[in-house]
Structures are given as structure tokens and as C-alpha cells.
Write a structure and sequence with these properties.
CATH topology: paralog of FGE (formylglycine-generating enzyme)
CATH superfamily: paralog of FGE (formylglycine-generating enzyme)
Largest sheet: 4 strands, mixed
Number of domains: 1
Distance between the termini: 31 Å
CATH class: Alpha Beta
Shape: globular
Radius of gyration: 17 Å
Order of helices and strands: EHHHEEEEEEE
Helix content: 10-25%
Number of helices: 3
Structural class: alpha+beta
């Protein structure tokens, strides 16, 4: 996990030290949560509407964005899941072979990710339907949009030096903080910010037009209608 300073000369201080992490098995959504999926939770009365870019009738397959960290967590809980930890997210994005991007080492283009390669990025000023660059841009585990499209909330508080003392088994992030971590880059980010090691931060109580999420479930669950349920 993190940036290998022996292999790269552009590591940022909060991406080091490069360290090995062991995780319990988990399930993770193949796609970012879509507007259509999130609408089911809104219709159920368990979720509140995003603050912007919300048109599930017209764009049901675009990732839901403009949701706060609590809204994202509420949806995952409703679906009997949870937000991924930062460590789980990074493992799902890059596997174990030290790749730079979910698909490998090839520099990002619109073939691999929805990003800002000029204005507007990849022909749009907003996210596109999920899995639009699949399978070319997929992670080693077949996950879509782990780089670009919408950035993604994870569960961790942000700590700029957290990696130095995070431990090597199932880290859950600092115990407290003021900002939450986001991962993956988005349609507003240029190629260098799509590397899977990059860490972003945002206020957890704000919704942003570039920021969505996906959920995970632990190994003691089985698939259910809206996600997962306990065995």
C-alpha cells in the first residue's frame, strides 16, 4: 500500500512509507453506486436526495454524486453493506503487483478512464455511465471506474502521516479527524491524479459534483436483492 519510493520519484508525503497490509476477505461493488440504485433507497424513505446533479429518470446509470459522507454511509447500511476502508479500496484498485493505475502502467487516456484531458474532460463536464471504459480500464478484479469518472468516499478519517503507524492488519484509519478520504480521481482530474496510490480529502458534510462512492460487504454475508444480507 502507498507509493514505492524506490520505484517512483513523484511520491507525495502522505503516500509513504510503502508498506504491506493484510486484509480479511471482503466483497466490493463492481461499479460506483448509480443514481438508479440510490433512488431505490430514496423511494424507500431511508436516504435523502443528493444536493445536485440528480436526475435518475434521465441518467439512472451515471454514478450518484453530490452526496455527503453520511449520505453515502447511510445508503451502504441500507443495502446491508458499508463504505470500504482506504486499505480495502486500494487493494481492490491495484491488486498485489504494484501497478500504477487499475489497468496497469499505461498512462491514462479516455480509453481507460473518464478524466480531464482538456476542457471538458473526455468530452463531458460530468460523470458518464458506469463501466463506460470497461473492460479496458478495469482493475485486476474486474471493477469499473476505480480511476476517473467519480471519485469515491472511503470510511477513513484523513491523517497525513497515518501510514507511518497504521499497522499491517486491517487498518481502519485514524480514530478522529476533520476531513474524510476520497479515492480514485474523477472526471475533473488530470492523469497524474488517477494513480491508485493518490489520496484526496474533503469535508464529510459537503456533497461534491465529482464525488460518489461504492460499498463493500464482509465475508459473512450473501447476495441479497439490494446488495448483501447476513448468512
Amino acid at each position: 500500500m502507498g507509493c514505492n519510493e524506490q520505484a517512483f520519484d513523484d511520491c507525495i508525503s502522505d503516500e509513504v512509507p510503502f508498506h504491506e497490509v493484510e486484509l480479511l476477505q471482503f466483497f466490493i461493488d463492481r461499479t460506483e453506486v448509480t443514481q438508479g440504485q440510490y433512488k431505490k433507497c430514496v423511494d424507500d424513505g431511508s436516504c435523502t436526495k443528493p444536493s445536485c446533479n440528480w436526475n435518475p429518470g434521465l441518467t439512472p446509470n451515471q454514478p450518484v454524486v453530490c452526496v455527503t459522507w453520511p449520505q453515502a454511509g447511510k445508503y451502504c447500511s441500507w443495502a446491508n453493506k458499508r463504505l470500504p476502508t482506504e486499505a480495502e479500496w486500494e487493494k481492490a484498485a491495484k491488486g498485489i503487483d504494484g501497478r500504477i493505475f487499475p489497468w496497469g502502467i499505461v498512462a491514462p487516456t479516455c480509453e481507460y478512464a473518464v478524466l480531464d484531458n482538456g476542457s471538458p474532460g473526455c468530452g463531458t463536464g460530468a460523470p458518464k455511465d458506469v463501466c463506460g471504459t470497461s473492460p479496458k480500464g478495469d482493475s485486476p478484479y474486474g471493477l469499473c471506474d476505480m480511476a476517473g469518472n467519480a471519485a469515491e468516499w472511503v470510511s477513513d478519517w484523513y491523517g497525513p502521516s497515518y501510514y507511518a503507524g497504521s499497522g499491517d492488519s486491517n487498518p481502519f484509519g485514524p480514530e478522529e479527524g476533520t476531513l474524510r478520504v476520497r479515492r480514485g480521481g474523477s472526471y475533473v482530474d488530470t492523469p497524474e491524479y488517477l494513480a491508485v496510490r493518490r489520496r484526496g480529502v474533503d469535508s464529510p458534510l459537503m456533497g461534491y459534483s465529482y464525488l460518489g462512492f461504492r460499498c463493500v460487504a464482509d465475508d459473512n454475508v450473501i447476495p441479497g436483492e439490494f446488495g448483501f444480507k447476513s448468512r
